[in-house]
């Protein structure tokens, strides 16, 4: 997925245009996109707010092979002592590796041609570093390089100081018997009879891990000799081109060779060591041209960050003192991580921006790099804001005994236990930092004990699990993941068997990679079981079902305009602009007004549509729409009710499709939608209100059926039901939806009592302006405890007192917040822009 690259001349012209305006991003509510897929805008500039101090300097792609040199200073003439000038490097980034003082900073860059010719400096860019920007500073690469051990024990050098003592106690570890069992499996496998061992590289990679862990802990030659035997099988055959062409397989090969090379260095002959080195270099040299100059300017290349980054880094680590290209790639890897990681570099909230399910593919890398880099730099990489929030991010986004919050590839998994790798990462975080959310999360199922790649840390680090594995007493009912764009609210995390969990997404990252076209969509779970959630099955990244019925907007609980949804692009973004976390009211406001923006311009998606014989047409849910406003207010009214208030507006009349999905058939009675969930022993009722007439229909058919013949992920092909509440054509619409959940055995769910624009259900009274020609407004009050919410009002009753709004169209909450009854007001929080204004 590549945008058209600017020539240096055009880049300079574009930069000059950008410099003509110094307005802050907040004054431009709807830029073309928040994050560019491939960078076309130098970052940061005056209209950017840095995510971290120091901010990396990033520039668009240039001519292949050219180097880039940066200057950074508080002096616009670049002459005072604050000026920092980088050495020319072939990558398009620069990390100052020092805290930047609050105030204005200036920077520029220039290209240095392959022959050494220095091109003119770019225009000068300026940005402001505020005092409240989170700080996380890393040492320069020279510090990292200087601390790499000189001997051949580098990959797990962070365990050298603890492993000897750990060996004395390993038999008491619950990991010990699993380690022995895995090592036996690896010893029993004989690759010498295999005529194509490269095709077994995934299994050999797993066995290399098994054997290395056992050898490191037991120090028995049998394990090391088996590692050597396996690698010799590879050395005696020609490399398989198909294996090398697969980045995952190439990475598995790189790790298998690198780990065996350094662990068993003296057991190989000089000729064999040379063969291993040449094979490792051939892998690196094959991929380096597609990595350096590319990954630092791409928003997030999921395959690369999942496994490839770690495996190629490990290959470079063992060879860096022998081969200049390995040393150069090692420096690139360090600079790339400290500039663009974790989680894209533009995320501090601890949630995984690329889809909840796909956190698991990144978890081992996140653990390993944090350990290795912390050890070699003597700097705690877990102090990065994303890492510090990742415990609560893991715990809330996929609760124990529940399906995942669910907004990306793999969201539909019915596995009620979060994946073992998620559990292993949480266990690591608990042992390393004592994070209470990670300790609680991993204690509830202990699935981390099945995870083999992190087993060496559990056995050799000497780090024990925290004594207290209870959920923190002050655990919030709702969490706002501001940078990734999700809000997750729960009624009772201390009683997961009766917890109602609401997840809501409106993300500045838009759609692409493993995320879907689902801005302003929600999922609802009760007792860990889906009440309403997205539909479809993930089997193939590019088949018709994936494109039309899985990642497509029509698969989510959101809206369509004239049957058209959101394209697959970072341009199709949303943003959660407000959020309150009260004892009785959890609230978020999502703005998806820019999400309905045509078709995807990315070559990958264009190719996928073409290969599937499809067009990005209105019939398939893609194309231009006149939509100009879609703001969704969503509430969890504790303990068992959900309220949604949608503001919809277009430049011309459209029919609005309000969507809702369930794994159970709906019973439709006028505006009442009832579902019964026997597996969870509960029922749900959704009632839709609007002044516009609508026709409600349901279907159990997909736009494109899944091709069950290609199912390889253990898919469960259950029937799913979709509601389409289609409103008559109009320019403006307001839709109020009230949802109630009742466990089996309780009385039938009572209908909402409506009187004009006032609605009563349970202890709640709601007054909602549904006349789209009048200003939007909402007032919610609990008649039992007097918790209240207001939006678009001039004043409201808050705890028996009149509260006068300070800002027009603000949201106000009166509730028990953090143990104190108080009244809070909030208006929109803009997303932190990283692209063009």
From TrEMBL:
The keyword Signal applies. It is found in: Cell envelope. Gene3D superfamilies: 2.70.98.70, Chondroitin AC/alginate lyase (1.50.10.100), Immunoglobulins (2.60.40.10). Keywords: Signal. It comes from Bacteroides gallinaceum. Residues 477-671 form the Heparinase II/III-like C-terminal domain. Pfam families: DUF4962 (PF16332), Hepar_II_III_C (PF07940). InterPro entries: Chondroitin_lyas (IPR008929), Hepar_II_III_C (IPR012480), HepII_N (IPR032518), Ig-like_fold (IPR013783). This is DUF4962 domain-containing protein. It comes from the Bacteria.
């Amino acid at each position: 997925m590549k945008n058209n690259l600017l020539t240096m001349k055009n880049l300079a012209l574009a930069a000059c245009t950008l410099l003509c305006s110094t307005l802050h991003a907040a004054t431009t509510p709807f830029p073309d996109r928040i994050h560019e897929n491939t960078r076309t805008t130098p970052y940061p500039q005056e209209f950017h707010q840095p995510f971290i101090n120091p901010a990396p300097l990033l520039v668009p792609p240039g001519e292949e092979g050219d180097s880039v040199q940066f200057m950074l200073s508080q002096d616009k003439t670049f002459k005072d002592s604050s000026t920092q000038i980088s050495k020319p490097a072939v990558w398009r980034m620069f990390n100052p590796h020092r805290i930047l003082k609050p105030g204005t900073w200036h920077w520029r860059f220039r290209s240095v041609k392959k022959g050494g010719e220095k091109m003119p400096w770019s225009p000068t860019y300026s940005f402001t570093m505020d005092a409240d920007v989170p700080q996380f500073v890393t040492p320069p690469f020279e510090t990292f390089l200087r601390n790499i051990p000189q001997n051949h024990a580098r990959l797990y050098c962070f365990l050298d100081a603890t492993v000897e003592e750990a060996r004395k106690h390993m038999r008491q570890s619950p990991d010990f018997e699993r380690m022995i069992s895995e090592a036996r499996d690896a010893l029993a496998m004989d690759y010498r009879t295999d005529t194509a061992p490269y095709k077994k590289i995934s299994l050999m990679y797993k066995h290399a891990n098994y054997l290395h862990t056992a050898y490191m802990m037991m120090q028995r030659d049998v394990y090391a000799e088996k590692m050597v035997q396996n690698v010799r099988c590879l050395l005696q055959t020609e490399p398989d081109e198909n294996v090398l062409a697969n980045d995952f397989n190439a990475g598995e090969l790189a790790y298998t060779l690198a780990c065996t090379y350094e662990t068993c260095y003296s057991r190989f002959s000089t000729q064999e060591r040379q063969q291993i080195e040449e094979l490792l270099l051939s892998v690196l040299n094959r991929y380096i041209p597609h990595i350096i100059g590319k990954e630092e300017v791409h928003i997030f290349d999921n395959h690369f960050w999942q496994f490839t980054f770690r495996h190629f880094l490990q290959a470079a680590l063992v060879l860096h003192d022998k081969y200049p290209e390995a040393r150069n790639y090692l420096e690139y890897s360090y600079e790339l991580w400290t500039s663009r990681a974790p989680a894209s570099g533009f995320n501090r909230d601890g949630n995984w921006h690329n889809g909840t399910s796909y956190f698991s593919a990144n978890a081992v890398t996140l653990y390993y790099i944090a350990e290795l880099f912390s050890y070699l730099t003597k700097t705690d990489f877990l102090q990065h804001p994303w890492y510090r929030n990742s415990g609560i991010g893991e715990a809330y986004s996929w609760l124990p005994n529940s399906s995942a919050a669910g907004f990306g590839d793999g969201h539909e998994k019915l596995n009620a236990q979060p994946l073992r790798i998620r559990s292993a990462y949480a266990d690591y975080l608990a042992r390393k930092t004592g994070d209470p959310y990670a300790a609680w999360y991993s204690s509830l199922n202990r699935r981390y004990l099945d995870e083999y790649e992190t087993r060496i840390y559990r056995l050799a680090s000497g780090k024990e699990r925290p004594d207290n594995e209870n959920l923190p007493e002050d655990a919030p009912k709702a969490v706002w993941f501001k940078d990734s764009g999700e809000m997750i609210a729960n009624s009772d995390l201390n009683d997961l068997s009766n917890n109602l969990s609401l997840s809501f997404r409106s993300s500045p990252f838009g759609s692409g990679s493993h995320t879907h076209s689902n801005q302003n969509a929600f999922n609802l779970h009760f007792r860990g079981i889906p009440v309403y959630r997205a539909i479809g099955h993930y089997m193939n990244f590019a088949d018709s079902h994936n494109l039309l019925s899985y990642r497509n907007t029509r698969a989510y609980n959101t809206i369509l305009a004239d049957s058209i949804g959101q394209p697959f692009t970072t341009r199709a973004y949303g943003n959660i602009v407000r959020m309150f976390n009260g004892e009785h009211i959890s609230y978020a406001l999502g703005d998806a007004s820019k999400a309905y923006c045509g078709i995807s311009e990315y070559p990958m998606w264009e190719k996928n549509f073409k290969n599937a014989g499809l067009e990005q047409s209105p019939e398939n849910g893609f194309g231009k729409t006149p939509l100009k406003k879609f703001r969704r207010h969503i509430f969890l009214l504790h303990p068992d009710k959900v309220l949604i208030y949608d503001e919809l507006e277009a430049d011309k009349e459209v029919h609005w499709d309000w969507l809702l999905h369930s794994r159970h058939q709906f019973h439709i009675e006028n505006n009442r939608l009832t579902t019964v969930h026997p597996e969870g022993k509960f029922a749900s009722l959704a009632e839709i209100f609007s002044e516009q007439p609508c026709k409600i229909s349901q279907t159990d058919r997909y736009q494109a059926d899944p091709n069950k013949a290609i199912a390889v992920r253990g898919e469960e092909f259950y029937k799913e039901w979709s509601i389409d509440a289609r409103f008559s054509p109009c320019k403006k619409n307001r839709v109020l939806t009230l949802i109630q959940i009742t466990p089996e055995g309780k009385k039938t769910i009572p209908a909402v009592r409506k009187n004009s624009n006032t609605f009563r259900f349970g202890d709640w009274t709601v007054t909602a302006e549904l006349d789209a020609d009048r200003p939007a407004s909402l007032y919610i009050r609990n008649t039992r405890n007097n918790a209240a919410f207001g939006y678009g009002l001039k004043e409201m009753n808050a705890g028996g007192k009149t509260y006068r709004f300070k800002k027009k169209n603000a949201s106000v909450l009166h509730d028990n917040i953090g143990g104190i009854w108080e009244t809070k007001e909030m208006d929109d929080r803009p997303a932190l822009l990283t692209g063009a204004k």
